[in-house]
Inverse folding.
């Protein structure tokens, strides 16, 4: 009996010990899971993954499905379960507005622009203001301040911008013409003028005919806007010594820039029909050997070059590009907005600050080199090869492979920079990319870019047209300085004075 009792006692103690150990293990696991939840979790812990619905555009008729291996790799890396909501780019705005009005917003939503519908949704509290949180993430904290401001609404950031080249503008020049005339690339406004004059008067193509001119401009007003900055004219708005903002055409240097443009027109150095020329045909005079210069985005340079080479195979290196030329106040250039849409975090699906931080962690991780390569290029050996150190895509002729990856790059922001793979490019393309980076040091920011003006939303087109029309008329000699002043007065009376007051009020509030 005694032996049997001892055996039962030992068995009972053993069971109690097992239960106790199991209980401790359960508590430990629970604590571990809670800890993982606070830190964003481990990428292998599928139970702790954050569910994300992501709305982005697609350019494909059949975007990747939920079983795409590329999507699975993104989910594993970011510790998320992602449901892609693809919006066909052909009716993106409609799909965006329908989704906004539904009230059932995805966790992360691509925002094409600061449209009235998006601004209204922001005012209604539909999206998180993410600006104060960006400093806490290794990639997002390196966002460009100019682009952040450009993409903000009255200085507040409601989406992480998708980076594009801020310093994309430049000057495209017929390099073969320079060489034929024994000239160097211009570095100042005077040298730029002398080059244009030589391109018209000194037979740069050597055909013995008077059939060339300096610079081609179309009815797209961008080139004038770019060249104005060379003279020190502000980008849309300038700031005086008292911190007051004023429109660019009231700057002291504006008339000097217009007089230069008028000189180009009077001397036949720019095409006479610039005010009506179709922008779609803007590059043709450079390609065809009629004009020697175009002020445009730098990457138009290689497109022009490739077309010239197609027509003239013996002309192997006909184009070069420069950033800008130096004017009276130094070296300046007009930036682009620096972004193509934003990725915003909705408050309808992301309800707590803790969830917001995890959503931002996802966006931050999408900027890691591994994620940029995965989303843009796919897997080495499957979607691309590295041959002799060079990237070669395998997607071109394989629809099935392309359907695994096409469109995931729409989730990329490229902050602080693009790290995905690309094929080795030509020397001209490499020069373009180099100058885009250098341009960021000289671009002129618009201090009022983020301000949402009620007056401009109603009268902006009318106000802009008054000044644009006056600039064209001054260049071609239809009005003089008095006519310019009359146009400014008309601008003021048409709502411009109130517009200045409104912008300055917004500027003071933002400070």
């Amino acid at each position: 009996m005694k032996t049997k009792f001892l055996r039962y006692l030992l068995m009972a103690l053993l069971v109690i010990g097992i239960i106790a150990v199991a209980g401790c293990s359960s508590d430990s696991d629970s604590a571990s899971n809670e800890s993982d939840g606070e830190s964003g979790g481990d990428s292998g812990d599928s139970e702790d993954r954050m569910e994300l619905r992501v709305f982005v555009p697609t350019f494909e008729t059949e975007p990747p499905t939920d079983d795409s291996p590329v999507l699975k790799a993104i989910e594993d890396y970011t510790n998320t379960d992602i449901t892609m909501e693809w919006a066909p780019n052909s009716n993106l705005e409609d799909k965006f507005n329908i989704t906004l009005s539904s009230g059932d917003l995805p966790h992360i939503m691509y925002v094409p622009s600061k449209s009235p519908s998006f601004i209204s949704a922001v005012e209604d509290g539909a999206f998180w203001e993410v600006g104060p949180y960006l400093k806490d993430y290794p990639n997002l904290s390196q966002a460009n301040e100019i682009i952040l401001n450009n993409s903000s609404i009255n200085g507040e950031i409601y989406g992480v911008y998708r980076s594009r080249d801020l310093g994309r503008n430049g000057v495209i020049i017929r390099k073969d013409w320079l060489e034929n005339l024994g000239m160097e690339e211009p570095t100042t406004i005077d040298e730029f003028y002398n080059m244009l004059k030589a391109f018209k008067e000194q037979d740069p193509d050597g055909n013995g005919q008077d059939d060339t001119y300096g610079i081609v401009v179309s009815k797209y007003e961008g080139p004038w806007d770019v060249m104005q900055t060379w003279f020190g004219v502000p980008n849309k708005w300038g700031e005086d010594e008292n911190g007051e903002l004023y429109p660019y055409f009231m700057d002291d240097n504006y008339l000097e820039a217009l007089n230069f443009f008028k000189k180009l027109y009077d001397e036949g150095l720019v095409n006479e029909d610039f005010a009506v020329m179709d922008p779609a045909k803007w590059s043709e005079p450079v390609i065809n050997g009629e004009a020697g210069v175009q002020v445009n985005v730098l990457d138009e340079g290689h497109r022009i070059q490739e077309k010239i080479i197609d027509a003239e195979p013996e002309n192997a290196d006909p184009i070069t590009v420069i950033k800008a030329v130096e004017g009276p106040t130094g070296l300046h250039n007009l930036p682009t907005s620096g972004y193509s849409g934003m990725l915003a975090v909705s408050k309808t699906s992301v309800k707590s600050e803790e969830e917001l931080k995890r959503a931002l962690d996802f966006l931050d991780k999408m900027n890691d080199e591994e994620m940029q390569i995965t989303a843009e290029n796919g897997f080495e050996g499957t979607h691309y090869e590295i041959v002799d150190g060079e990237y070669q895509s395998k997607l071109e002729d394989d629809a099935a492979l392309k359907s695994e990856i096409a469109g995931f790059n729409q989730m990329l922001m490229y902050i602080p920079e693009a790290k995905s793979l690309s094929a080795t490019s030509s020397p001209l393309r490499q020069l373009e990319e180099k100058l885009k980076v250098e341009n960021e040091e000289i671009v002129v920011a618009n201090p009022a870019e983020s301000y949402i003006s009620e007056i401009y939303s109603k009268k902006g087109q009318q106000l802009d047209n008054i000044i644009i029309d006056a600039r064209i008329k001054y260049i071609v000699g239809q009005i003089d300085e008095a006519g310019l002043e009359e146009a400014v007065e008309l601008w003021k009376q048409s709502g411009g004075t109130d517009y200045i007051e409104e912008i300055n009020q917004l500027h003071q509030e933002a400070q």
About this structure: DSSP finds 17 helices and 13 strands in the chain. The radius of gyration is 29 Å.
